[in-house]
Write a structure and sequence with these properties.
The protein is α/β, with parallel strands linked by helices. Helix content is 40%, strand content 16%. It is built from ten helices and eleven strands. The longest helix has 21 residues, at 6-26. Bound molecules: NADP nicotinamide-adenine-dinucleotide phosphate. NADP nicotinamide-adenine-dinucleotide phosphate is lined by residues 139, 162-165, 167-169, 186-190, 193, 206-209, 227-230, 240, 260-261, 264.
């Protein structure tokens, strides 16, 4: 069984980006990410802090906007508009979730698609589904990098994605399709889930249910990618897959922690760097 080491692969990507950013600086180009947080949700503060640290390591300038919980939707939209027009800013990220008085969809749509490094704008999602260039949601993009850098072929393989959320399951399935996998998407209404997941050469699990996937769901020799992240009763992290139960059946698997998790920030950084290296044209 091969353990897919997301920590090592994400470090490798960050080092490559550090080099690319240094080269860009020599050409007089600075990469800049604006990160907006509304309120002080502790989990969001940790994520925002980790993004700032990654920017520092790679050499990306980061602008932090820590807005009060009672910031109005209009004030937030005005800030996004200002950042959209600022030529020095390459990427804009609004940390989700937002307080309930702010409409998340409106905020996501307000970010210019050319600075949408999270890949959540409907234009970015549309570009992915019709095979055009555009920003791709970071977690599923990270899964593809994990597979490629672990030399696991996707082309021609039976790929099953468990979960159909807008940020993981749907873009994941589009990316596997783009890599010429034969893709099936499962969700809470799928009948006979085990029968479908057992067909998978590559099984990507993103259902948000701790240790849901046991060996009864997995084909012998499959690659299993666990996107889920949970804290158990002992405050230890675990995924959507019961790692100990499936580890002797699979040929490769991501651990939690240290699998998909570290890839999300690495891919966000990659999107920031690519935003300056290429013009995104959605037309
Ligand atoms: P989500 O929005 O809650 O979506 C869960 C999906 O799983 C839904 O499509 C749902 O189906 C399906 N599902 C739920 N229970 C099911 C069941 N019993 N059988 C079959 N399908 C079922 O979750 P998400 O945002 O995609 O996140 C999934 C997990 O990934 C969470 O643990 C989250 O914390 C983690 N995550 C990790 C990262 C990272 O960086 N590592 C990033 C994002 C998310 P329906 O559509 O039919 O309801």
């Amino acid at each position: 069984m091969k353990l897919i080491d997301g920590k090592a692969i994400s470090s490798e990507i960050k080092d490559e980006l550090k080099y690319r950013v240094a080269q860009l600086k020599k050409e007089g180009k600075e990469v800049c990410l604006a990160v907006i947080q509304v309120g002080q949700d502790p989990a969001s503060s940790v994520y925002v802090g980790n993004k700032k640290k990654a920017c520092e390591y790679i050499g990306i300038n980061s602008l932090a906007y820590e807005l009060k919980e009672d910031t109005t939707e209009v004030e937030l939209l005005q800030l996004i508009d200002k950042l959209n027009k600022d030529n020095k800013v390459n990427g804009i990220l609004v940390q989700l979730p937002l307080p309930s008085h702010i409409n998340e969809d409106k905020v996501i749509k307000a970010i210019s698609p050319s600075k949408d490094v999270d890949g959540f704008h409907p234009m970015s999602v549309g570009a992915l589904s019709i095979g055009k260039q555009g920003f791709v949601s970071c977690t599923p993009a990270g899964v593809i990098e994990l597979l490629k850098r672990s030399n696991i072929d996707i082309e021609g393989k039976e790929c099953v994605v468990l979960g159909r959320s807008n940020i993981v399951g749907k873009p994941m399935s589009m990316l596997l399709l783009r890599e010429n996998g034969t893709v099936t998407i499962c969700h809470s209404r799928t009948s006979d889930l085990k029968e479908v997941t057992k067909r998978a050469d590559i099984l990507v699990v993103a259902i948000g249910k701790p240790k849901f996937i046991t060996k009864e769901y997995v084909k012998e020799g499959a690659t299993v990618i666990d996107v889920g992240i949970h804290r158990n009763e002992n405050n230890k992290l675990c995924g959507d897959v019961d790692f100990d139960d499936v580890k002797d059946v699979v040929s490769a698997i991501t651990p939690v922690p240290g699998g998909v998790g570290p890839m999300t920030i690495a891919m966000l950084m990659k999107n920031c760097v690519e935003s300056i290296e290429r013009d995104i044209d959605f037309c």
